[in-house]
Amino acid sequence: WWCANLYSQGLRLWGGYLKSNLEVFLQRFPEFLNTDEKLLSLAINEAKNELNPNSWGCMYETGLFFLAAYKLAKSPMGEPVRLDASSNKTTYALEFERLCRCISMGARVA
């Protein structure tokens, strides 16, 4: 960790700060700004447990956030963002499914 200093605001590397997953998530999905941070963190952590960073590569964070948003939207408080009130389909689910198809295309080398 040479060239890195720990500050109360977060990890500072070469003059910049690394934002937490929660901060980046809320920038991407401002519709969840009024949601309790503990609930947001739980959804992000659940999504982390379900996705393999090696399989997702550079799309890992995008997939992580869309899966977390989908998990939040499936809850009772997420009813306004559903495409159909009688189902759990959301724009988050549709985009996550599209991302899953993208990462599963082509051959993989272990």
Describe the structure.
With 110 residues, this protein is mainly alpha-helical. 49% of the residues lie in helices and 9% in strands. The chain has a 3-stranded antiparallel beta sheet with strand order 1-2-3, with no helix packed on it. β1 (4-7) and β2 form a beta hairpin. The model is unreliable at 1-9 (pLDDT under 50).
Nutshell version of this structure?
This protein is mostly helical and 110 residues long. Helices cover 49% and strands 9% of the residues.
Notable traits:
110 residues; mainly alpha; three-stranded antiparallel β-sheet; 5 helices; globular; disordered N terminus
Secondary-structure-derived class: mainly alpha
Portion in helices: 40-55%
Strand fraction: 5-15%
Main beta-sheet strand count, sense and barrel state: 3 strands, antiparallel
Which shape, going by the Cα principal axes?
globular
Average pLDDT metric: 80
Low-confidence blocks of residues: 1-9
Total strands: the figure is 3
**What is the C-alpha radius of gyration, as a whole number of Å?**
16 Å
